[in-house]
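Re: the 460-residue chain
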Amino acid sequence: MRGHIAQAALERALERTAKADRKVRSLLKQHRDDSAGLMVLATGGYARGDLAPYSDLDLIIVSTDLDRHEPVVREFVQALWDTPYTPAPTVVAFDELDASFFTVPDRASSMFESRFIWGDRDLADQFQNNVNRVVDAEVFEIFAERKQEEFTARRAKYGSVPRVLEPHLKSEAGGFRDLHHVFWLEQAGMALRGKWKLRRNLSTMIERFAKRLSVIGQFMEWETNEFIEAFGFLLAVREMLHERYQRCEDRLIVAEQPVIGRKLGFVGDDRQVMIDLMRAVFHASEKHSRFCDEFGHFFRHSRQYGRRIAPSPERSLQIPPGQDRFSLDINLIRRYSSSPQMLVHFIESTIESGLLLSGHSRHVFRRILHREHNSHTEADPALSTDWFSDSNSSDEDNPLYIIENWKEPLRNWFELPSDLATRLRRMDELDTIKLWLPEWHEIAGLTTGSYYHRYTVDEH
């Protein structure tokens, strides 16, 4: 059901964006003779191909001669106000697009995700070349640092947990801004390597981004599909919210949850519809939040993007100087995944050291621990059985799946005087609580709908 909802929402968003393109081009058609040195770019959701109902039409108008083009720009924007759209134009002189421009996070992000709509194609080529020229190592580092500050401030305001009673679909942990944060870092990295491209054709950029991760081996095919489904499902919820309020509204309050759930096809009484909807929302948000935590760091620090990434058995432990994360090669991950004792010991070691496991290693950890994903191996040539330890054995033979094996390590763990919440959080990040507490799935993502409890039952 979620897959159908997601796919339909992605298609509607793309058609909504295409309709806006047609309207913008129709208004500019009469100015064809004045297009030399002038171009109109889409940005924001309009550029990314996921335009939501009642969202602003974000535009960047680039000119080589602002005085000469001022009448054209004024007439175009005024005409756009007479349409159902709400234009949000930014006019930029081409000469202003220097290195300092791309160290301002909001302005640079808008440029990195921009898409060509209308105008001088030679100028568009110059613009693309200019972005790749001015974004050097220093500009990239400043941009990445300021985007991280922006991300940290957002988490401080909205919280770092996606499973809350009334999630903000855009800015909460696991919201769309988490995806955009990683996407912008990837695009800045592409410019750093001189490979950034100004989009000319309409597509869903976040969907294409996920598929690029599959090409370089960071995502398996089934992971890509799950990621896109999560993105599309949240788009559907956001679309229903905007339609419901007839304006941009991204807070999914309790009172609206049964209404939105029914519009999406969930059935039952209000309580059941709310539970089913919010479990699906939390499932999608959790994927987004983990993706941001795991890949934001990767794109900020990696110089390998663009090449196919493979685990390196020669390096058992990598702790970059001055960083608080470390990564493990596949053999160590297999070892720590071999039994409850080893897994508990590994988590305890990370807590004692104060270090975090790198996103990529955590990603691989979950692949190995989730033996139910073995069914994907034959369909996906990128996922060989080498990723899994003893992948041909049954679950009954795997020590992790025998509850009795968890008793002693957990007893010792729970008797420690402090930090139980941190231990459980680390275990939950690897989705392993359900291995020793099968009932966990019954409360995972369960909302009470009570304003006395801000978080879901499992989060509490």
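The chain is about 55% helix and 5% strand.
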